[in-house]
Amino acid sequence: MAGNPWAKQLVQHFDRLSVDLGDRVAMFGRSGEWAYVLEVERSTWHLTFLDRLGQDTLVRQGDELVCLDRFLHEHPWVCYVDAVGEVSSIEPGDGLLETAVPLKDRLGTFAALDAAMRQAGAVRDTFPGCEDPEDEDEELARRLFGAVGEHLGLSLPRREIQQGLLPAVHLPSPL
User: Fold this and answer.
1) Which residue among 11, 61, 116, 131 has its CA within the 20 to 30 Å range from the CA of 81?
2) Ramachandran class of 141: left when φ > 0, alpha when ψ lies in -120 to 50, beta otherwise
3) Model confidence at 108, in pLDDT bands (50, 70, 90)?
4) DSSP string for 56-121
């Protein structure tokens, strides 16, 4: 990001029309040991990641990656890559260990995060339910994102995000 000419420009001042149509504008910051990028238009990270899975282009050995996607017209989901490169992704209500391809979980990070999600009632078999069934997906997503953030020590500055007070970053289209 050091070479990014917009790195010191706040999102609220960024001229969105100055970038190509396929490109994205995001905000970034740090929370404890985590660096984060917030894409407000569409998530582009997964196109690069899923295209090159196994080539270590997005996550270096020893790094962790957590992606929380909150879509407007699809189910939200979480993707987590542990420090040895094991990957799991889920939708709200699913357990992190309940995957089609069995996880090795050599570090125990998936089991620990799954336990935190269950403690928060973010997995269907631990979810207390809602008065209105139509609110169930929303409540599961809220609990899931809260449990992931709390367990991993990731906290985002809501006021600064809403007011566009974080630095902007230009993300060229991965396609």
Assistant:
1) 11
2) alpha
3) very high
4) -SSS-TT--EEEEE--SSS--EEEEE-TT--EEEE-TB--TT--SSPP--TTSHHHHHHHHHHHTT
Nearest-angstrom CA–CA distance, 51 and 48: 5
Contact 43/174 with Cβ under 8 angstroms? no
Give one word for 28, left, alpha or beta, with left for phi > 0 and alpha for psi -120 to 50.
beta
pLDDT at residue 6 in the model: 45
pLDDT band at 113 (very low <50, low <70, confident <90, very high): very high
The yes-or-no verdict on residue 152 having pLDDT over 90 is yes
Amino acid, single-letter form, for residue 166? L
What kind and span of H or E run contains 29? strand 24-31
The predicted-structure confidence for 76-94, as pLDDT tens digits, reads as follows 788 888 998 888 888 888 9
Give me the residue label for tokens 């060229």.
172
